[in-house]
Predict the 3D structure of the following.
Amino acid sequence: MQLQGFLDTEITADSGLELLSQDEVARLADHSQDSVHELFRKCSLAVLNSADVTDDISRLEHQMKHFNIEVVQQDRGIKLRIRNAPASAFVEGVMIKGLRQLIFSVLRDIVYLKLELEANAAIDFTSSRGSTNSIFYILRNAGVMRVGADPSLVVCWGGHAIPDSEYRYSKEVGYRLGLRGMNIITGCGTGAMKGPMKGALVGHTKQRIYNGRYLGISEPGIIAAESPNPIVNELVIMPDIEKRLEAFVRLGHGVVVFPGGVGTAEEILYLLGIRLHPDNQSIPFPLIFTGPKESEDYFRSIDRFIGATLGPEARQYYEIIIDDPVAVAHKMMAGIAEVRDFRKSVHDAYHFNWRMTIEWPFQEKFNPTHDSMAALTLHRNQPVNELAANLRRAFSGIVAGNVKESGVRQIREHGPFLIRAEAAMMAELDVLLRNFVEQGRMKLNQASYQPCYQLTS
């Protein structure tokens, strides 16, 4: 049954997947109807909802009751039959071309890639080396690595629930980077993930750069709450948040952090934990925290939290630049020049950061549950990089409780996650999280926000 405000359609592949053999197409069609099908449906619907700015997963749950997508086998390749797609994904009854391309990216990463991984004995997500090699394979399969191209990929992290002033600032920074030929990677959602891409698009257009890259990296647990924004022209869906974070570090040549909430704090702790490893301390990798003047207190609170938990050594790996997009662009350009010179001198690839050591605590999949969150060891009596890994997990759990389907369901059924920490660290966590709540950085629908966590010592 077709619902009002929704459309049925059929689309065919126009990149890569149309070259599959008949046997591959048959296996793909079969596979799209097994346990993977539900994930494929959810991620596909999230892409088609990209015109809607929301992080309310209950809306998606309602749409899922009527939405369906299936792989249809035909001699000339792949066809997708879609039922009850949001009308906002169409113009004059025809699906927007960019969304059609992203749907096939979902098919590639959710269904086809699963077939490939199952058939490839070299794929191993149970060890550190195996995980990195598998991430390389996923990114290579997605076609997002440009062998031989000069370093130019700037990772932009920041929140989806940000005020207009911070969004405009992120767009201005993206514009300044785009004017200088830089390309953008974000988590592909709205807010500080969309702003830099939109700004860079204008900068690229002014410079007559027609092959600008706006790369979005997501994961199944978050894509429903943070649908890919319309600027994304390359989409990769990694298996989980840990693989997603490593993909940012392996692909990118520098990172700009805009204001955000717990997800942004998770990203910061992940990168600083890696930078604090002795093997990585001499590897150039520019990291800049930036925002408009009214965001200065936000970054000072982040800086204070880092110093109080990870210590003063961690603060040497980033620079805070307030209300100066041009200075951010200059600093990032200089930092990426160092990255290029370093990788050239050690014969490391420009397209994949092999030399950065990422240990297993930052790669092992963390499943936030009430038991796993309560079991986290948040105290200073451990190596600082291990503390960073555990703090990262704590923030990851709060993200899950705020916007991920599995986390929201657990909070609904069993109440907030309990997070235990030593007294001094609990106090620092409490101050930071209270600031996030007061500044409206937890969810888009902030008025009804109820904390999904409870702190105790």
